[in-house]
Design goal:
The protein is α/β, with parallel strands linked by helices and 312 residues long. It has one domain. 53% of the residues lie in helices and 9% in strands. It has a four-stranded parallel β-sheet, with helices on both faces.
Length: 312
C-alpha cells in the first residue's frame, strides 16, 4: 500500500510540475502534427517535393516565398502540411510552425500569428525555456560567430555577437527597417542570459519569462518591463506597439534561422474556416512580412472553392 501511495504521489507531482511549466491553453492547435504520427510517403509525393524545394529556394535565394495549397475537402492537404512540419523537425532541415484555426479579430491578426509562432517555438511552456527551439535558435545563431567559441566568454561579447550575426545576415535596403530598432535582439539576448543564469542557480528566470511574454505580444507591468530594460510611461503596461513591431519580432526570428542556413516555414491549415475579413487582414500582413524575411516560406492551405471566391 505504501508503494502504491508513493507511486501515486509521484505521478501527481509529475503532473503538477508539468502544468507549472507548460500551459496547454496557449496552444493554438486542435490536431497539430507530431513527430510520431504515421505517414504515407507515397501519398502526394510530388507536391511534397515541390514544397521542400521551395523552402530551400527561399533560403538560398534569400527571398520570402508564398505558396497556396488548395483542393477539395478530404484530399489530403492537412496530411501534406503535417508531413512538411515533421520533415522540418525530424531532419532539422528547417524551422516550421503549424498554424491551425487562427481565430482573432482582423486588427489583431498579426499579434495572434506572433503568439502562435512563439508558442510553437517554446512548446507552450511558461517557464524554463532551456530545452525549447526558441532558445536553441538564439544560441546556435550566436555560435556561428567565431568570437564566442573560445572560453571563457563574457556576456558583453555574446551580446555583440548576436547583433553582429544579425547584421551580417541582413540585406541593406528599405525592407530592412525591421533591424534598425535593436529592441528585439536585446530582448532575445536577455532571454538567453536569463535561461543560462537560471540553470546555474544565479537567478529565478523571471527575466526569461518576461522576455517570452513580450515576444508573444503580451502587455507587461512596469516591474517586468524593467527586467528587459524597457521603460513604462506613467506606470502603463509595456508591449509591442503595432503591427510593424510584431513584424520586427517575426523577421528577426526568421533571420536567426537563416543564419543557420535553414528556411523558416509558416504552415497555415484550413484557412477557409476564417471569415473573409480575417483572411484579408492576415494576407496583408503576410505580404509585408514576406517582403522583409529573406528565408521565409508561407504555405496557405484551404478548400479551393472558398479561396478562389476570396481571390476574385
Amino acid at each position: 500500500m505504501n508503494n502504491l501511495l508513493s507511486d501515486r504521489a509521484a505521478t501527481v507531482e509529475t503532473f503538477l510540475t508539468r502544468v507549472r511549466s507548460v500551459n496547454p491553453f496557449t496552444d493554438n492547435r486542435i490536431t497539430g502534427p507530431s513527430v510520431d504520427d504515421l505517414d504515407v510517403p507515397e501519398l502526394h509525393a510530388e507536391p511534397f517535393g515541390r514544397l521542400t524545394n521551395l523552402a530551400f529556394e527561399a533560403c538560398e535565394r534569400r527571398r520570402g516565398l508564398g505558396v497556396m495549397l488548395w483542393g477539395e475537402a478530404g484530399i489530403g492537404k492537412s496530411h501534406l502540411l503535417s508531413r512538411l512540419v515533421r520533415w522540418a523537425q525530424r531532419e532539422q532541415q528547417a524551422y516550421a510552425v503549424y498554424v491551425h484555426n487562427l481565430q482573432s479579430s482582423p486588427n489583431n491578426a498579426p499579434t495572434a500569428l506572433l503568439r502562435a509562432v512563439v508558442n510553437s517555438l517554446i512548446d507552450s511552456r511558461i517557464n524554463r525555456f532551456g530545452r525549447t527551439r526558441l532558445f536553441d535558435l538564439i544560441r546556435l545563431a550566436i555560435l556561428t560567430d567565431e568570437s564566442v567559441r573560445a572560453r571563457p566568454v563574457s556576456w558583453d561579447s555574446i551580446h555583440r555577437a548576436l547583433l553582429r550575426v544579425l547584421d551580417q545576415h541582413a540585406e541593406r535596403g528599405p525592407a530592412d527597417a525591421a533591424l534598425v530598432d535593436r529592441i528585439v535582439p536585446e530582448i532575445l539576448f536577455r532571454l538567453l542570459r536569463s535561461v543560462y543564469r537560471q540553470s546555474a542557480g544565479k537567478e529565478d528566470g523571471a527575466t526569461a519569462v518576461a522576455a517570452v511574454r513580450w515576444l508573444r505580444g503580451e502587455l507587461l507591468p512596469a516591474e517586468q518591463a524593467a527586467l528587459l530594460g524597457l521603460q513604462a510611461r506613467r506606470e502603463q503596461p509595456v508591449g509591442l506597439e503595432d503591427a510593424q513591431q510584431v513584424k520586427q519580432v517575426l523577421v528577426t526570428l526568421t533571420r536567426l534561422a537563416g543564419i543557420l542556413g535553414r528556411p523558416f516555414l509558416l504552415c497555415f491549415d484550413q484557412v477557409d474556416n476564417l471569415e473573409a475579413a480575417q483572411f484579408s487582414a492576415l494576407s496583408r500582413f503576410l505580404e509585408a512580412l514576406l517582403d522583409s524575411a529573406p528565408n521565409l516560406l508561407v504555405v496557405t492551405s484551404g478548400v479551393k472553392a472558398t479561396l478562389v471566391r476570396w481571390r476574385d
